[in-house]
Amino acid sequence: MQFLLDTVLQHALCKSASDVHFIPTPEHVEVKLRIKDQLTRYDTLNLDTYQRLLTLLKFQAGLDVSSRHRAQSGRYIYHYKDLYYLRVSTLPLNLGTESCVIRITPQYFQNISLKSTADISKLMEKKQGLILFSGPTGAGKSTLMYQMVLYAKQELNLNIITIEDPVEQLLNGVTQISVNEKADITYSASLKAILRCDPDVILIGEIRDAKIAREVIQASLSGHLVLSTIHANDCQGVLLRLIEMGISYQDLLQSTNLIVNQRLVTTTNQQRQLVYETMLNDDIQYFLSNDFQLPDTFTTLADKLSLLKKEGVIDAATVRKYEK
């Protein structure tokens, strides 16, 4: 079984796949790879072979091998030329078996050029405030945050501490804390501790609820530059979510330096390109003072996608996929 698993994983890595899907049917199990946001069929397995392969995956990821009736998730380190985190997630199905998805992530973050994001990286020079990255799952929020953090370390020589659930990729020279609820290593407890450790930049993995939102705002107002992610479809949606969580207009104005809403799109030449809209503090002030209306000069994500279509960088189907 290990040989079969290695064959699947190594093919996925050679194809730069981000996920491997095992999708059971009554007759067999389909194996598909997510490559540049597209699911492509790789192979099929018979049900007995898949069950043995799934048992091996569960064992290596530290999951309960005997349980088939609840969703589980775990991860382990896999070595093939480089080191990778494999996150194994299972879901029980009414077919009497389980589906499985393996998320593949390099253990060490591979930094790339920041030329296309110079307008964001220059804000890392701020001594305090909040920078929020938004967008759906798979939009590249964590990747862009990591790029900003490495820029702050390498170019600005700043002290950076992160709190993540879990740590997605390792950043050399950056202090990274992984949330562990059982050990009482929570976002809240960790944030209070690291504020005493003289950080210049704090990265909070995700704003999930009102409590974390309030603590992130307070940290950004206390002389620290804070980066975090939040799920929203656009920049104004980020503000509306925070207001719904109980954050006051004044705190939003005092704390927020920048909101980024982004997508990773596939171009006509099959490359991945980051597209984003940005809302600066002046835009936020206008939005909150004018009944949640954007300034006429604001360039939306839809505007940028339309421009890329006119330039032939992306096609109409891609625009429809990412526009609201």
TrEMBL record:
PROSITE patterns per UniProt: T2SP_E
Highest taxon in the source lineage: Bacteria
* Alphabetical UniProt keywords: ATP-binding, Nucleotide-binding
Write down the CDD domains for this protein, in alphabetical order. Answer: PulE-GspE-like
InterPro entries per UniProt = ATPase_ComGA, P-loop_NTPase, T2SS/T4SS_dom
Which Pfam family, giving just one, matches this sequence? Answer: T2SSE
- Where the record annotates domain Bacterial type II secretion system protein E, the positions are 195-209
Which family is annotated? Belongs to the GSP E family.
Stated name of the protein: Competence type IV pilus ATPase ComGA
Q: Which organism is it from?
A: Staphylococcus americanisciuri
Query: What gene does the UniProt entry assign to this protein?
Result: comGA
